Amino acid sequence: VTDATLIDGKAIANEVVEEIGQQVRELVAAGQPIPGLAVVLVGEDPASQVYVRNKLLKCQQAGIVSREYRLPVETMESDLLGLLVDLNDDPDVHGILVQLPLPKHIDEQKVLQAIAPEKDVDGFHPENLGRLLVGAPDALVPCTPLGCLIMLRRTLGDALAGKHVVVVGRSNIVGKPAALLALQQHCTVTMVHSRSENIEALCRQADVLIVAVGRPELVRADWVKPGAVVLDVGINRVERDGKAKLVGDVAFDEVAPIASAITPVPGGVGPMTIACLLRNTLQAYQRQQR
Ligand code: NDP
């Protein structure tokens, strides 16, 4: 794989974090309050703990004050909702993020809907998803698809318009918003999922393939049109040669030689997701200062 084909999400993310940091420094120098993010983690899921740690570290790097709320796995839904009421009312908190997945006894939709839409930096509140649907400028857009879009804009520029984008996966947090964003960019969009017929043939038509499934190396070389741009959202922990390893939903080694550009796992979509969280936090802050 040459440098030209590798979409270096880590490097792009560092640039975004740097930019946000600069803007935060200017705000603070001008006497404005410091942007604040509250991160709520319920339970001890090891992957979630890593994600939360990385998010908090990046906040620090950008000068955003972050507060972590770690709640035990047996936390009652009503207690979590109570915490969200407090955070919604707290003027020092401009962004609120509840790390998913939540324990089974807690209703995820109920919790996401309890976050004030203007503080909903994950963009999972139906109000923000609705704003995204109608193309309202003040939508807080889910971080992972937003990161995908930024990478696509940097890779293809204005040539993104008119391209056939195939999104594999239809979750509310990745697949659906990724398709809406691509549509907004004037792409032709196809969504496929576990019930799709002829999924390989559909993927092979893609100029841009966005894969968010959660199945290690599902997408093989013969699913990909030569010259396609491939964004691999998947993060799968697998064991290879007795060692734990992270792999994407795309078989990188065989797809990279035929793609015109591809994101690696790790170091692709993951860091961009966190950079976009900071971007959303600053956007939420600016909206609340007005
Ligand atoms: P979900 O499990 O919510 O959704 C997975 C989607 O993939 C579903 O729509 C499902 O279809 C579809 N699917 C499952 N199996 C197949 C198959 N064999 N063929 C076609 N489609 C299939 O996952 P998420 O969207 O939350 O996450 C997807 C992946 O992205 C995971 O690996 C996750 O870890 C990763 N991720 C990475 C992030 C990052 O920052 N890089 C952030 C968020 C997620 P159906 O609807 O029919 O069940």
From TrEMBL:
Q: Which Pfam families match?
A: THF_DHG_CYH, THF_DHG_CYH_C
Give the Tetrahydrofolate dehydrogenase/cyclohydrolase NAD(P)-binding domain ranges.
142-288
Q: Does the keyword rRNA-binding apply?
A: no
GO MF annotations for this entry?
methenyltetrahydrofolate cyclohydrolase activity; methylenetetrahydrofolate dehydrogenase (NADP+) activity
The positions annotated for binding NADP(+) are 169-171, 235
| Domain Tetrahydrofolate dehydrogenase/cyclohydrolase catalytic, residue spans | 7-122
The membrane spanning regions, by residue number, are none
Asked whether the keyword NADP is assigned, the reply is yes
- BP term (GO), one: methionine biosynthetic process
The alphabetical list of record keywords is: Amino-acid biosynthesis, Histidine biosynthesis, Hydrolase, Methionine biosynthesis, Multifunctional enzyme, NADP, One-carbon metabolism, Oxidoreductase, Purine biosynthesis
What EC number(s) are associated with this protein in UniProt? 1.5.1.5, 3.5.4.9
What is its pathway?
One-carbon metabolism; tetrahydrofolate interconversion
Q: Which reaction does it catalyse?
A: (6R)-5,10-methenyltetrahydrofolate + H2O = (6R)-10-formyltetrahydrofolate + H(+); (6R)-5,10-methylene-5,6,7,8-tetrahydrofolate + NADP(+) = (6R)-5,10-methenyltetrahydrofolate + NADPH
Q: Which InterPro entries match?
A: Aminoacid_DH-like_N_sf, NAD(P)-bd_dom_sf, THF_DH/CycHdrlase, THF_DH/CycHdrlase_cat_dom, THF_DH/CycHdrlase_CS, THF_DH/CycHdrlase_NAD-bd_dom
What Gene Ontology terms describe where this protein resides (cellular component)? Answer: cytosol
* Family note: Belongs to the tetrahydrofolate dehydrogenase/cyclohydrolase family.
Subunit annotation:
Homodimer.
The protein's matches in NCBIfam families, at most eight in alphabetical order, are given as: PRK10792.1, PRK14186.1, PRK14188.1
Q: What PANTHER family does this protein map onto?
A: C-1-TETRAHYDROFOLATE SYNTHASE, CYTOPLASMIC, C-1-TETRAHYDROFOLATE SYNTHASE, CYTOPLASMIC-RELATED
Could you tell me what this protein does?
Catalyzes the oxidation of 5,10-methylenetetrahydrofolate to 5,10-methenyltetrahydrofolate and then the hydrolysis of 5,10-methenyltetrahydrofolate to 10-formyltetrahydrofolate.
- Protein name, as recorded: Bifunctional protein FolD
Name its species.
Ferrimonas balearica (strain DSM 9799 / CCM 4581 / KCTC 23876 / PAT)
**Gene name of this polypeptide:** folD
